[in-house]
Amino acid sequence: MDKEYAKHLMGIYKDKVLHERMKRRLEYFERVFKRDNDKRLFAELAFCICTPQTKARSGAAAIIDLYNNNLLFKGSAEKVANILIKHVRFHNMKAENIVLARKLYFPNEKFVLKDRINEALKNDTMVELRNELAKEVKGYGLKEASHFLRNIGFGQKIAILDRHIMRVMDKLSILPEGMTPKTSLTKNNYLQCESNLVEYSKSEKIPMEYLDFVFWYDATNDIFK
């Protein structure tokens, strides 16, 4: 491990201003599931459909635009795509996936995943639920399913992996043997990287939900979602 770089990352985590920003974001995420309504939960599900190969802020802008045009909960795939094209890549495919997700997980404006999330919380099986969502939600992989669960307050045991995070892992020399930041994130590779991050989180005493923010801030100089 690059101890100097690890020290730099610890400095980000312990910086009073940055730490407070991270803490506020995580508290906000926790409130999404505990206090917000089903529409808000579906909006997060849809946001994570928008994010692949698109900046998070652009994905968020797309969801806000859909909401403001009364298309997030009722719009056809064609109308949704006409909004998404202004914000995200692969707008047609993502529009179809949002409409399908609405049909499967938001019938009659009821977020049906809520019971499964509560069950996973009760049984400490959030990682297993993440793996299921990665298979079930069209447009999701392990990253998007992890992102969704983190954004509703359940990022304690999972990693949101992409090229930015893998580059930080590479600098720390904690990528699994034989992997580089350009290595394809198959399921097996993803889980190996995640396992290494969990070990790093424990050794450095930086909680996983904070670690993503620390790595992301180091890579992009931003704290968002």
Automatic annotation (TrEMBL):
GO biological process: base-excision repair
EC number: 3.2.2.-, 4.2.99.18
InterPro entries hit by this protein: DNA_glyclase/AP_lyase_Ogg, DNA_glycosylase, HhH-GPD_domain, HhH_base_excis_C
Residues at the site labelled Important for guanine/8-oxoguanine distinction: 225
Matching Pfam families: Ogg-HhH
Signal peptide: none
Record SUPFAM superfamilies: DNA-glycosylase
Active site location: 143, 162
Keyword DNA damage on entry: yes
Swiss-Prot/TrEMBL keywords: DNA damage, DNA repair, Glycosidase, Hydrolase, Lyase, Multifunctional enzyme
Catalysed reaction equations from the record: 2'-deoxyribonucleotide-(2'-deoxyribose 5'-phosphate)-2'-deoxyribonucleotide-DNA = a 3'-end 2'-deoxyribonucleotide-(2,3-dehydro-2,3-deoxyribose 5'-phosphate)-DNA + a 5'-end 5'-phospho-2'-deoxyribonucleoside-DNA + H(+)
Molecular function in Gene Ontology: class I DNA-(apurinic or apyrimidinic site) endonuclease activity; hydrolase activity, hydrolyzing N-glycosyl compounds
Domain HhH-GPD: 50-220
Stated role: Catalyzes the excision of an oxidatively damaged form of guanine (7,8-dihydro-8-oxoguanine = 8-oxoG) from DNA. Also cleaves the DNA backbone at apurinic/apyrimidinic sites (AP sites).
Alphabetized HAMAP family for the sequence: Ogg
Family, as annotated: Belongs to the type-2 OGG1 family.
Protein name listed in UniProt: 8-oxoguanine DNA glycosylase/AP lyase
Lineage, top ranks: Bacteria, Pseudomonadati, Spirochaetota, Spirochaetia, Brachyspirales
